[in-house]
């Protein structure tokens, strides 16, 4: 709010491919795919056409009770076919945070249905971002997002993002019989691009199985080719109990998210009388949003953006590494997925008082959008970005760093 109050606002007026234009007609390279979501790039007429066709046939209708619609069924089947989850079931929602709430409630409800209602505790990781709905605000790995809202969801705790031993120790501290689930992003995104250490997820998966803790992967950023596959976690060869997705599923053309659930976890709810999972939202399974997602998935497949993504990942990594020698830069984190962080030195941030907001503003003034977080500048361009555009992005960021020195 105080950014807007200082004015003038930056009004995004048009977008095409990796470019956007402001209200004055000036052009910018979208180095962040908006908020990590526009994987196929902007202005795809195939998605616009699919939306038009669907909205003219059936705009929207609830999927409450036994109501269904063809796009929601088809999308769920396609997602299930690609998910690295056993006997997958799909719950559709309108976004990431809502899906985290759904997964957390489902995890607790699952244990209650199995006669273990004391299994309530939710463990997440430092730096992890899971949206700002009720459960997301409660399990987020950055305290500043929780402060000032009173008591939130109780029985949660956070462990260091890079230590499987820390997870095991926390499960033992709480008592395995009280832990419902563990949440992790394949690569931590909004918290600052933190990559898992070698072998981390295999070990996590083993620990969760050993103590019967549900392993919930938050692939909201990492899915839909950003890590060169459908859900990101395939990269580490493990099969979680639930996968939360959003963003890249529709490249953000319309809001959509959801949870893929292991059949074993879904099972108690299918076989109970009445309505054992009293949960749902008005726009879940929205047919027009589902049509947009399927047109987006068609593009990912037709243009093989999975393979493209692996190549972009390598080029982005080497281009960002070029910034490591800059005097203001402490480290570059990249190399898994089309995303990276350029972290400033403590000396720059504290003694010299340089802020990432200043670097962001200088970069934007030079026609490139990056994302500032307290210690780093983050990049996550659309997957259709070219080598030349990546070099333009990193050299512009270098120029902005020089300007604030
Ligand atoms: N989970 C992750 C990993 C995210 O990055 C985000 C949003 O950035 C969310 C959840 C929340 O998604 P939404 O903003 O759609 O609620």
Automatic annotation (TrEMBL):
Keyword annotations of the record: Aminotransferase, Pyridoxal phosphate, Transferase
Family matches, as Pfam families: Aminotran_3 (PF00202)
Entry GO terms, CC: cytosol
InterPro entries given in the database record: Aminotrans_3 (IPR005814), PyrdxlP-dep_Trfase (IPR015424), PyrdxlP-dep_Trfase_major (IPR015421), PyrdxlP-dep_Trfase_small (IPR015422)
Superkingdom assignment: Bacteria
Record's keyword annotation contains Transferase: yes
Molecular-function GO terms, alphabetical: pyridoxal phosphate binding; transaminase activity
PANTHER family linked to this entry: AMINOTRANSFERASE, AMINOTRANSFERASE CLASS-III
Family: Belongs to the class-III pyridoxal-phosphate-dependent aminotransferase family.
UniProt-recorded name of the protein: Aminotransferase class III-fold pyridoxal phosphate-dependent enzyme
UniProt source species: Nocardiopsis alba
């Amino acid at each position: 709010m105080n950014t807007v109050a200082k004015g003038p606002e930056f009004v995004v007026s048009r977008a095409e491919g990796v470019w956007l234009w402001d209200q004055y007609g000036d052009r910018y390279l979208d180095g962040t795919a908006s908020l990590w979501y526009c994987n196929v790039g902007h202005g795809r007429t195939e998605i616009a056409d699919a939306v038009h066709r669907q909205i003219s046939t059936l705009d929207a209708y609830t999927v409450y009770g036994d109501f269904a619609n063809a796009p929601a069924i088809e999308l769920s089947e396609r997602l299930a076919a690609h998910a690295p989850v056993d006997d997958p079931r799909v719950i559709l929602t309108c976004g990431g945070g809502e899906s985290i709430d759904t997964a957390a409630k489902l995890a607790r409800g699952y244990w209650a249905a199995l006669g273990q209602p004391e299994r309530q505790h939710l463990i997440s990781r430092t730096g992890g971002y899971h949206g700002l709905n009720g459960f997301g605000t409660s399990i987020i790995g950055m305290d500043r997002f929780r402060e000032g809202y009173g008591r939130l969801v109780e029985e949660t705790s956070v462990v260091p993002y890079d230590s499987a031993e820390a997870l095991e120790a926390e499960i033992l501290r709480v008592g395995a019989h009280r832990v419902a689930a563990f949440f992790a992003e394949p690569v931590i995104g909004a918290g600052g691009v933190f990559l898992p250490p070698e072998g981390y997820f295999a070990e996590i998966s083993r620990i969760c199985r050993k103590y019967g803790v549900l392993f919930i992967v938050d692939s909201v950023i990492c899915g839909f080719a950003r890590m060169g596959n459908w859900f990101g976690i395939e990269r580490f060869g493990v099969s979680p109990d639930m996968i939360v997705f959003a963003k890249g599923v529709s490249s953000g053309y319309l809001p959509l998210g959801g949870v893929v659930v292991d059949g074993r976890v879904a099972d108690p709810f299918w076989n109970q009388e009445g309505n054992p999972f009293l949960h749902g939202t008005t726009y879940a399974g929205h047919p027009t949003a589902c049509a947009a997602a399927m047109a987006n998935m068609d593009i990912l497949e037709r243009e093989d953006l999975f393979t493209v993504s692996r190549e972009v990942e390598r080029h982005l990594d080497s281009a960002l590494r070029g910034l490591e020698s800059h005097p203001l830069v402490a480290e570059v984190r990249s190399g898994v997925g089309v995303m990276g962080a350029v972290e400033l030195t403590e000396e720059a941030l504290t003694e010299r008082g340089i802020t990432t907001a200043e670097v962001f503003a200088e970069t934007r003034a030079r026609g490139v959008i990056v994302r500032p977080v307290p210690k780093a500048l983050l990049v996550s361009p659309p997957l259709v970005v070219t080598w030349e555009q990546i070099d333009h992005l990193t050299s512009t960021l270098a120029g902005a760093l020089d300007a604030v020195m």
